[in-house]
Design goal:
With 260 residues, the protein is an alpha/beta fold. The protein has helices at residues 2-27, 44-58, 69-77, 89-98, 130-139, 149-160, 164-167, 177-186, 197-203, 236-245, 248-256; strands at residues 34-40, 61-67, 84-88, 107-112, 114-119, 142-146, 171-174, 191-196, 208-213, 222-228.
Length: 260
Amino acid sequence: MRLEAQAGARFGARRTLLVIACLFALLGPLPAAALEVLSAGAVEPGLVAAVESFRRSTGHEVNLRFATAPALRQKMTAGEPADVLIAPENVVAEFAKSGLVDGEHQAPLGRVGVGVVVREGAPPPEISSSEALRRAVTGAASVVYNRASTGLYLDSLFQRLGMLEEIAPKTTRYPDGASVMEHIAKGRDDEIGFGAVTEILLYRGKGVRFVGPLPDEAQNYTAYAAAPVNRRGTPEEARALVQFLGAPATRAIFASHGIE
């Protein structure tokens, strides 16, 4: 009797497994994960390319949403759904301290410098030194830059070079780098603009000319990092994406798009 019961149990287990296998065959493969990423706009060119490589290798979908650092703070604090945050390292550290992101599994991505841009076809200004940069800015008919992280640094730089108040009447500010590039592309030859090098490169060939990075003594770099968001019980795929973004091979992708 016991042997018959054991045989019946084994048969029942095999039948259950067969039913499950048939259901998988009918339903097809399980859907890949769909990840939500909140990211700073300065790393957009390299991030888009890196995420496409991640999609191809894993099958996971990734939805990228870009914003300035102040906007990222607002979105995270307001509880906007996200699985991964990509932001300046100080912003990531801030949210790691409050527990909103997983600081133990964050990954550095690289750093982005500030560059000078003019309209395509315009003569490039001389910017090889801080004094040359000062002459180029004060001599321009219009100065254009953003109100995000890059713009905050430029305010301090122009103050240090003693020209912030002098150029204020001819300065135009925008909330993000994309608006600066669009202004320059449709503007005049005697305007000078500033933005993250990656953002300028993104618009090169679309009406703007990348003059070059700020001179070494005036340059400022913003380092970026990625971290899983803790709020939704972070899926394992989010940690996998962060690990992928921080891998040496992926950093080569970032470097090819101006992220050092």
